[in-house]
Sequence to fold (126 residues):
Amino acid sequence: MNTDMISEYRATMFDGKADVNWLRQGWRGLRLYGRKAKAAIEAGDIPAKAAMIARADELLNLMTGILDTKDGGTLGPALMTVYSALRFTLLRANTENSTAALDDFEAALAFLDRDMTKISESVLAA
Fold:
């Protein structure tokens, strides 16, 4: 696939150019899966924890696939770095049954959801 085909595919997914507001729903889904995984760890339900972490990982894969990472872009490469860190945090939560890792996961996603939206809105207002 070349970059034009990827851009066209991305535009059809979002009925136009993707922006930060489209990503918010994914971030909120990730937060939900993280909270459910944490509750499962606290309840001792390891299969449920693994299922929620697997769902979060699949969603991260999808969200990574729609990033625009071509030369000159800034948001796509930055989010790729963030998503890699989130994936590592999920791995830590899964292997260590760590609720602290899931707290870190939640905090990072809350920051994205809250602050990236503010940045997007301020750019639109300017």
Observations:
- The radius of gyration is 16 Å.
- The chain is about 85% helix and 0% strand.
- The chain has a mean pLDDT of 82.
- Residues 18-125 form a domain with the Four Helix Bundle (Hemerythrin (Met), subunit A) fold (CATH 1.20.120.340).
